[in-house]
Amino acid sequence: MLGQMMQQPLLISSLIQHAERHHGDQLVVSRRVEGDIHRYTYRDLAKRSRQMAKALAKLGVQHGSRVGTIAWNGYRHLELYYAVSGSGAVLHTLNPRLHPDQVVWIADHAEDHVLCFDKTFLPLVEAVATRLATVKHFVLMADRSHMPADSQIPGLLCYEDLMDSEDDAFEWPRFDENEASSLCYTSGTTGNPKGVLYSHRSTVLHTYASALPDALNISGRDVVLPVVPMFHVNAWGLPYSACMVGAKLVLPGPGLDGASLYELFESEGVTLSAGVPTVWQGLLGHVQAHKLRFATMKRTIIGGSACPPSMMSTFEDDYGVQVIHAWGMTELSPIGTVGILKGKHEGLPTAERRAIQAKQGRGLFGIDMKIVGEDGRELPWDGKSSGELMVRGPWVVQQYLKGDKSPLVNGWFPTGDVAIIDADGFMQITDRSKDVIKSGGEWIGSIDLENIAMAHPAVAMAACIAAKHPKWDERPLLVVVKKPGAEVTAAELLAFYEGKIAKWWTPDDVVFVDAIPLGATGKMLKNRLRELFENHLLNKA
Amino acid sequence: MLGQMMQQPLLISSLIQHAERHHGDQLVVSRRVEGDIHRYTYRDLAKRSRQMAKALAKLGVQHGSRVGTIAWNGYRHLELYYAVSGSGAVLHTLNPRLHPDQVVWIADHAEDHVLCFDKTFLPLVEAVATRLATVKHFVLMADRSHMPADSQIPGLLCYEDLMDSEDDAFEWPRFDENEASSLCYTSGTTGNPKGVLYSHRSTVLHTYASALPDALNISGRDVVLPVVPMFHVNAWGLPYSACMVGAKLVLPGPGLDGASLYELFESEGVTLSAGVPTVWQGLLGHVQAHKLRFATMKRTIIGGSACPPSMMSTFEDDYGVQVIHAWGMTELSPIGTVGILKGKHEGLPTAERRAIQAKQGRGLFGIDMKIVGEDGRELPWDGKSSGELMVRGPWVVQQYLKGDKSPLVNGWFPTGDVAIIDADGFMQITDRSKDVIKSGGEWIGSIDLENIAMAHPAVAMAACIAAKHPKWDERPLLVVVKKPGAEVTAAELLAFYEGKIAKWWTPDDVVFVDAIPLGATGKMLKNRLRELFENHLLNKA
Fold first, then answer.
1. 3-state SS assignment for residue A161
2. Interface of A with B in 73-92 (CB under 8 A)
3. Residue A468 in contact with residue A530, Cβ under 8 Å?
C-alpha cells in the first residue's frame, strides 16, 4: 500500500531555488583570484547559475555530461556547482594539488567534456591541455580583461563572455533524484584515484543531515566560511547547506594564509568555519603572533585528519571558539560523524569533556556504522575494542565509477580506518588500517602516539610508523619535524610519553627529518616514510 | 547517468534503530493513564517495539494493514508508532475528541484491523465496538491488573499480555520508502473527514527538515515535551525527531492541565515543548496564579492556530521562554513554516521583532509555497498582497485516501488559508478562505480582528465572522466571551480598535456569548457562529 504524498525528487536545483526565493538578499562574498572582494546575493547567484546552465548547453553539455573544474572557493565555482548539477550534468571537481599526470588520468577517466578553471591554474591547464583526450572546451573563470593575451590552449573561452551571452530564462529540469550530480576522486595515496559519483538524492539527504543541530548546526543567522576547498569533497557540503538554510557564505579564494583568512573572518563577521588542521595552524599562528581576537567566530569544524588536542584547547581556552570534530570520507559525501556532546556530558570537567571531543564523534542519522575484527565479526561498542570501521547509508558509495568490482562487504563499505566506538556511540579513529602498528600480535594506533608528540613544544609535525622489529614483528617509530629553532633529543621525546600511554606503546626510537611528505589533500604520506625508515630498527639493532 | 551511492530506503524503523544504537540510555518519561510516572530508555522502547511488532503479526496485521490507536501521549503509544509503521503496517491515530459517529466512520473508512486504546477511552470504544465493521481485535493499552473485570468488547486483549508473549528477536523489514506508514484524518469542520496517508519517505524527510536549526532546532541535549497529542498529526513529528536526534522525551499522558504540565516541565527539566494556544493558556494561568517560574524551559512551539500576540509577549517578557510560531496542516505531515528570525532581524526593536514572530514563519527547505489571487495567478511576496496559500513538496498530500479526485491545482495543494508573504519569505495567515470577510469587494482578515479583541483585558475568547450587510455584502461581526467577572461594553470594545487597524476594518458590532463552540482539535467552529449570527446586522438594521 503506497503512501499518497507528492512525488517530488530531491534535486540540487531545489537548493538554489529555495535560496533565491527565501533568502534572495542574503550575501555571497568572495575573495577573487583577481585580488579584490566580490559581493553579491543568492538572487544573483541563482540568476547567473541559470545563465551558465544555458551557456554550457551551447557547449554541448548534456544530461550526464561531465564538467570539470579546477578552482578555488569562489562565486563562479559556486555558480558551476548549481549550473552543472542543476541542469542534469555532472560536476567534476579536480584537485589542483595533484600531479599533472594524475590530473590527466582523472579527467580522462571521468571523460570531462568541458574544463573550467581559475586563472591561478592556467599554467597547470596549459601543461596538460593537449593531453586531455575528452575535453572539448576550456573555460577560464575570469572576465575579458583578465584573459591572457595569448594562450597555448586552443579556443580558450572566457567565463564572463559565456555568461554575458545568455539571459536567465531557464527552468531547472526535473528528473530522477538518483541521477548523478557530481564526481570526486579519492586522493589515492596508493594506486589510481577512484571516482565517487554522487546522486542528487545522496547530496540532498547529506545536506539535511549535515545541517542538523547535532551536526554542523547551520542556520540562516550563520556566516559560513568554508576553508575546506570546493575541490575537496564539495567543501564538506557547505555550498549546499548554506543555500538550504540561507546562511551568508564567505569564500576565501586563494587566500588561505592566516592573515588573509583572519581579515575575512573579521570583516565579514564569520561565525562558522571548516577546514583541516594544517590550515588552522596557519590561522592560529597569525592570530597568536599579532595578539588578535576573533570578534564573531563561534565554531570551527575540523576534519580531514584528527585535530591535535593542543589545537583544540588553544581554540577553546584562548579564543572561545568551539571546535567541532568531524569525520568523513570522499566515499561518504563526506560527513559520517560529528563530535557534538550529549546532554549527559554537560557539566563534565574540562579534561573529560575534551577527551570526548577529541573523538571523531557520533553518527549522523542516515549513517549506520560498526567495527569488525579481522574475522569480520562485529565488535562491541565498549570504548576498548578496536576494529575496522564499516559504514552504510544513503550517502555512502555503492560502487566506484567504472569500478570493476564493488568495494562493499555484505552491504557495508569498509572505510580502511581502525576505530573504537564507546557506549554513547562516539567513534574514535585510532589509525588507518594500513598504518596500524602490529607489535607482537597486538595493535598499536599511530594517531595517539602522534598527538602526544605534537603536544611537545619543540615538535612541528610528527608521524608514527611501523618499523620492522626482529622480536615483535613491528614496533612504533616516531618521525619528527622540529619547530624552527627548537631543540629536543630523542630521549627527551620518548620520556615525554611517560604516564601518557601504556608503556609498551612508547615508540622505540625517534628519527628527525626536515619535512614529512604531504599528499594533495594535506595528509601525511606515511607509506613514503615507511619506505625510508621501515628497516631503521633492524639496522640499529 | 545514475549516481553510484547506496540505495537505502528512508524508513521509520531506521529512526528507532538509530535511537537504540546511538542513544540507548536516553530516557522516555511518561505520565500514565494509571496515574504514575513511567520511565525507561530508548533501548527499552526499541526492544518493546520489536516485541509488539511480533505480537501484532500474530493478530493478523500484515504489510499495509491499518492499526488504529485512540491514546494519549505515552510510551505504549510510542511503541505502536514504531511497531506498526516499522513492520510495514499503517498506524492510524484516531482523535478521541471526535463524535463517536465520526470515530466509527473514520475507522470503517480506514478499514482498521486492530484498534488499540488507552483505558480513558474504554467507554468510547465500548460504545462503538459493535458498530466497527473491520476491526478484528481490540487491545486495551494496559497491564493485566488494569483490565476491566468484564467488558462489552468481545475478546478484549491486554497490551502487556501481548507484549509478554513475545521476545524481541525481530528484524525490521526493508521495503520501498514510498510505502504507507501512517494515516491521519483531517478534522473536517465541514463534510466527512479526509484521510492523509503518509509514506515512510515523506515522514523521514519531514523529520530531517523539522529538526533543522531554523525549524524546531532539536538536539540530543533537548528534553522535549510534546503537549500536542500523538493523535493530532503525529504530534507534529516530535516522536520521530526526538529519536532522530536522541532527545529525552517526556510524554504527558492525560495530564494536560496547567498544574500537571508544570510539574512535568520542572521535574524532568523540559527545554522544548509544543502545542496549541489553548493549552498554553492553561499552563500560563497556572504559573501566573501560583507565581511560578520555568527553570529549564527555553522554547515553545505554538501552532494549530495563531498565537495571540499577548501570549507571545507574556512567555517572552515574563518568563524568558522563546515562542516559535509554526504553521502546518494534516496534509503537510504537518509542518510547512516556522517563525525563526533571520540574521538581519537581530537587533531589531522588540516591537518590530514581535511583528515578524507573529507571522507563521518561513518555509522549511522542501516546502515550496506561493499565494494566488482569485484568478489563480501568483501574487508577489510584498507583505501586502493577500491570496490563497498553495504548497507543494515531498511531505505534502497528493491525494486523499480513497479520494475520487485529486485536491491539487496544477500540482499545488490549495491550503484553504489566505495569506500574505513578505520579501523575506515570512508567511502570515490572515484567514481561512472560508472565514474571510468580503466587504464591498475588499477582503478583511478575521484573525487580526480577533487578536486585537483578545488583547483586551476583559476578553477570554473572540471570534470575528462575516455577517450579511445590506450595502457591503458582508461586514465583520465580533463574537466575544468575557473573562469571568469582567465587564466590557460593545462600544468600549469597538473603541479599542482605534489606531490599531484601518478604520473600515473595525467590526460593525459585538455579540456577547457564554461560549464559542470548539472542534475536536480545539479550533473555533466559526461556521456554527455564522449560522447563528449571519443575519445579526440585517436584523439590527
1. helix
2. 90
3. no
Nearest chain A CA: its distance from B170 CA (Å): 18
Q: What is the pLDDT of residues B333-385, one digit of tens each?
A: 999 999 999 999 989 999 999 999 999 999 999 999 999 998 899 999 999 99
Run of H or E residues at A502 = none
| Mutation site, A2, A4, A179, A406, interface B, largest B CB count within 10 A | A4
Q: Identity (one letter) of the amino acid at B279?
A: V
Q: Is B380 on the interface with A (CB under 8 A)?
A: no
Please report the pLDDT score of residue A190 as a whole number: 57
Give pLDDT tens digits for A275-304.
988 889 889 999 999 999 999 999 999 988
Phi-psi category of B75—alpha, beta or left, where left has phi over 0 and alpha has psi -120 to 50?
Answer: alpha
Strands (E), B272-349: 272-275, 299-302, 322-328, 335-338
Can you tell me whether residue B146 is helix, strand or coil?
A: helix
Closest by CA to A49, choosing from A88, A83, A85, is A83
Q: What are the backbone dihedrals phi and psi of residue A392, each rounded to the nearest 5 degrees, phi first? A: -150, 160
Q: Nearest to residue B230, comparing CAs of B116, B398, B364?
A: B116
Indicate whether A345 pLDDT > 70: yes
How crowded is residue A330: how many other Cβ atoms within 10 Å of its Cβ? 21
Burial status of residue B332 (CB atoms within 10 A of its CB: 0-12, 13-18, 19 or more): buried
pLDDT of residue B257: 94
**For residue A399, what pLDDT band results from cuts at 50, 70 and 90?**
very high
Location of C-alpha cell 566580490:
A38
Say which residues have a Cβ less than 8 Å from residue B115's Cβ, sequence separation at least 6.
B67, B68, B69, B70, B107, B125, B132, B135, B137, B138, B139
Query: What's the rounded mean pLDDT across residues A122-138?
Result: 97
| Cβ neighbours for B215, distance < 8 A, ≥ 6 positions apart | B209, B335, B338, B340, B364
Element (H, E) at B362: strand B362-363
Look at residues A369, A303, A241 and name the one whose alpha carbon lies nearest to residue A523: A303
Residue A70: partners with Cβ closer than 8 Å, 6 or more residues away: A94, A96, A103, A115, A116, A117, A118, A121, A124, A125, A231
ipTM of the complex: 0.90
What are residue A29's phi and psi, to 5 degrees? -115, 130
> Could you read off the pLDDT of B412-424 as tens digits, one per residue?
999 999 999 999 9
Average pLDDT over chain B, rounded to whole? 94
**What's the gap in Å between the CA of B425 and the closest CA on chain A?**
5
Distance (Å, whole) CA B133 – CA B126: 14
Q: Are B163 and B52 in contact (CB under 8 A)?
A: yes
A6 neighbourhood in chain B, CB within 8 Å:
392-398, 411, 413
* Average pLDDT of the residues in A390-394: 98
- Residue B221: left if φ>0, alpha if ψ -120 to 50, beta else—which one? alpha
CA–CA dist B111, B211 (Å, integer): 32
Identity (one letter) of the amino acid at A470? Answer: P
Residue A214 has what DSSP assignment?
T
DSSP at B344: G
**At B40, is the secondary structure helix, strand, or coil?**
strand
Instruction: Give the separation between CA A222 and CA A473, rounded to whole angstroms.
Output: 51
pLDDT tens, position by position, B428-458 = 998 888 888 888 877 788 888 998 999 999 9
H runs (alpha helix) in B11-121? 12-22, 42-58, 75-86, 100-110
Q: With H, G, I as helix, E, B as strand and everything else as coil, classify residue A260.
A: helix
CA proximity to B445, closest of B326, B356, B359, B541: B359
- Residue-level pLDDT at B27: 98
Indicate the residue of B90, B221, B398 with minimum beta-carbon distance to A343: B221
The verdict on B456 touching A (C-beta cutoff 8 Å) is no
Other beta carbons within 10 Å of A200 = 26
